[in-house]
Amino acid sequence: MRTANLFITFIFVYMINANAQHPDYLFMIEQAIKAPSGHNTQPWLFRINEEHIRIYPNYDKSLPVVDPDNRELFISLGCAVENLRIAASQKGYNTDMNISKEGIITINLKRDNTIEPDTLFKQISIRQTNRSIYNGRIISSDTISLLNSVFDTSTINARFYKNDTPEFNSIADYVITGNVLQMQDKAFTDELKSWMRFNKKHQNETNDGLSYAVFGAPNLPRFIVKPIMSKAINEKYQNKGDRKKIASSSHFVLLSTTTNTLEEWIRLGIIMERFLLKSTELGIIHAYMNQPNEIYELSIKMAETLNIPHEYPVILLRIGYGNKMPYSKRTDIKEVILNK
Fold this sequence. Notes:
Blueprint: H1 2-20, H2 23-32, E1 44-48, E2 52-57, H3 71-90, E3 93-99, E4 105-111, H4 141-148, E5 157-162, H5 166-183, H6 186-194, E6 196-197, H7 200-206, E7 210-211, H8 222-231, H9 235-247, E8 251-257, H10 262-281, E9 285-288, H11 296-305, E10 312-320
Parallel strand pairs: 6-7
Antiparallel strand pairs: 1-2, 2-4, 3-4, 5-8, 8-10, 9-10
């Protein structure tokens, strides 16, 4: 018994010391997991090595109905990569990235005294997906140009559509059509409900998913809130709310790719996160309206309508100005770090 206890103590101390050797790496991972993800699933795992951090897809957090090819999952991993690289610059590390054919991302880390800290670091903790109704203020053309410049060195295509233009209105129609199709799919609504967290206690039990708070719901007993929120998951309620949200927004932002490959999804996530952090720095809020992109036939029709028939619409955002909302919870860092 004494030998077993000593062995357990040794393993415990070893694990503490192993992590203590990489406080900078833990800091980087803490920032990485603040990235956005579909339904706030947080579909990532990390393994720390002496000279690199590996990021793995966590398929236990996949969304097989809304994201059957895991495209949005790998975009989320790309967002986490960008946060990690920005955090690395704060600690004086140079980074380069390798992506395996399975989508495992290796971030090589090397000390470099010439590295300048990335100015977007402060925005990592501030950025949030804001699902509220915005205030209707239109973003200036100069600011849109500044945001668009984020994509200058990227292969990802970004297009901005101003409120009340023909293109904006067409996209809005596709969002509404997407709602109808998704809300009529029981598998979709069941998956959505499985990721909803109905009050503070439920939210704190999982530290993931769609919190009641981000929708502005009150913190009431679960047996009261669950049937009310579940009943609201229908096309009529969804479209009523989305029409108000769309009307209050300044622009749609559509991100598209040309090859629709796993590596391109990750790279889209990297540049998208940079765009979201820059938007946050400028006081601009955002939310996803990805319904048309999540239904293949609808995305093809939308691409034709927007005269981009040879591209794949991947991410649709609405942006504008408004008040902050409560933040989504994050799982403890210890739960996403793999043992060696």
